[in-house]
Amino acid sequence: MRVAIATSGRFHVLDLARELNALGHDVVLYSYLPVKRALRFGLPASCQRSLLLHVLPLIALLRVAPRRARARLNWWLLRTIDMLVARALEPCDVFIGMSGLCVLSCITARCKYGARVLLERGSTHILRQKEILEKLGGGRVADFDVERELAGYNLADLIVVPSLHAEDSFLRYGFDKQKIFRNPYGVDLEMFPATAVPATREPVAIYVGAWTYQKGCDLWGRVLERIPGLRLIHVGARGDAPMPVSGNFAHVDPVNQWDLLKYYAKAHVCVQASRQEGLSLVLIQALACGLPVVCSDQTGGRDLLQILQDDELVQVFPGDNLDALCSCIRRGMDFALARRGMRSLPEQQRRQLTWRAYGERYSRRLNELVVGRSSSSPRS
Q1: Which residue has the higher pLDDT, 137 or 154?
Q2: Which residues, 6 or more positions from 353, have their beta carbon under 8 angstroms from its beta carbon?
Q3: How far apart are CA 57 and CA 60, in angstroms?
Q4: Domains in the chain and their CATH numbers?
Q5: Does residue 140 have a pLDDT over 80?
Q6: For residue range 334-375, what is the model confidence (pLDDT) as tens digits?
Q7: Cα–Cα distance between 311 and 87 in angstroms, integer?
Q8: Is the pLDDT of residue 301 over 80?
Q9: pLDDT (tens digit per residue) in 17-45
Q10: pLDDT of 151-203, one tens digit each?
Q11: Under a CB-based contact definition with an 8 Å cutoff, are residues 142 and 180 in contact?
Q12: Total-model pTM
């Protein structure tokens, strides 16, 4: 099956392209990522069509522009990539595009090649996301972003989401459940192997991600007050939320994905208190390393619990509920501190969290959509 994939650079799409290619599909990825960057994710150069040279001036301008101009420049970047993909698009049976990016390219794939169109939405429905962000009083979703998202939704044969709560948000806005394909993300088990229980008996939690209100980071100051002795390691960018003033808080600037292992190895529990999320990849990484996770019901935690069927490894609390968050952290620490030796998941559970399992679910759905059967489709 010929599969075209268009992205503005989201890395889970590189994993998707690699896995579909490995499963026998004829994959072409259109993006502005350097070829060497995608090669690091295991995607052969023959599967790549880099648009970098065409959009390099816009990317450079976006990086130096004042904040007030970035939204409009980003809009121009997305429109330009969309037009370039539409112009460069080769014959395909399936077109997989990123929501907010692909509109003209979706139309081209369908009208020119008769392709089925899937739209990757890594978060909740755009109107639900807009509602959440406006309640926080922080980031605002621009009207032109809403327009592009909604246009893409209307063009798609399937909307692909990573989590139950993202699926629920589309159902809330009247989407037919048959038009939604829920497929939780995966993890590279070689990059995130099992780790040993930390030698320290001092309880250590880790949070990986931007320090923002959207991620629930304003709750952490009160958490550290309520749980004396708890240490928190934050790995990620500084954002709009205030950082705790505490000797038990340590901040680390963003690191490459392959460098996260050493930080997971230092912690007992991984915590994600997000108010708005699709499916947090760091939760899957932490689980692969053997850490129990504590997460809000807006992170994809329900999906991970559904997969692992273990409420000691995955605890889900209602978003913004400080009491429940603290209770789950305490329970997670009791479980973590009682463990000894290597922290590893049973092999069957680990396999369900892999990118290969993610790709196989995707491949089956593509075959059902295009050729009406669930067996693998060889290159054609």
Answers
A1: 154
A2: 186, 187, 189, 284, 287, 288, 307, 345
A3: 5
A4: 2-186+354-370 (3.40.50.2000), 195-352 (3.40.50.2000)
A5: no
A6: 999 999 999 988 888 888 899 999 999 999 999 999 876 444
A7: 49
A8: yes
A9: 999 999 999 999 999 888 888 888 888 99
A10: 999 999 999 999 999 999 999 999 999 999 999 999 999 999 999 999 988 99
A11: no
A12: 0.89
- Tokens in use for 314? 């995955």
Q: 355 and 186 in contact (C-beta within 8 Å)?
A: yes
pLDDT tens digit string along 274-293?
998 888 899 999 999 999 99
Closest CA to 76 of 63, 62, 97, 65: 62
Q: Which of 153, 130, 268, 138 is nearest to 216 (CA)?
A: 138
User: Which residues lie closer than 8 Å to 368 by C-beta, 6 or more apart?
Assistant: 374
Indicate the average pLDDT of the chain: 91
Enter the tokens of residue 330.
């305490």
**What are the tens digits of pLDDT across the range 56-98?**
888 888 888 887 788 788 888 999 999 999 999 999 999 999 9
3-state secondary structure the chain: CEEEEECCCCHHHHHHHHHHHHCCCEEEEEECCCHHHHHHCCCCHHHEEECHHHHHHHHHHHHHCCHHHHHHHHHHHHHHHHHHHHHHCCCCCEEEEECCCCCHHHHHHHHHHCCEEEEECCCCCHHHHHHHHHHHCCCCCCHHHHHHHHHHHHHCCEEEECCHHHHHHHHHCCCCHHHEEECCCCECCCCCCCEECCCCCCCEEEEECCECCCCCHHHHHHHHHHCCCCEEEEECCECCCCCCCCCCEEEECCCCHHHCHHHHCCCCEEEECCCCCCCCHHHHHHHHCCCCEEEECCCCHHHHHHHHCCCCCEEEECCCCHHHHHHHHHHHHHHHHCCCCEECCCHHHHHHCEHHHHHHHHHHHHHHHHCCCCCCCCCC
The angle that helices 143-155 and 67-88 make with each other, rounded to 10 degrees, is: 20
User: What is the sign of the dihedral through the CA atoms of 283, 287, 290 and 293?
Assistant: positive
* Rounded-to-integer distance, Cα 150 and Cα 152, Å: 5
The tokens for 192 are 């995130």
Q: Which residues neighbour 131 within 8 Å (Cβ) at sequence distance 6 or greater?
A: none
Q: How many residues does the chain have?
A: 380
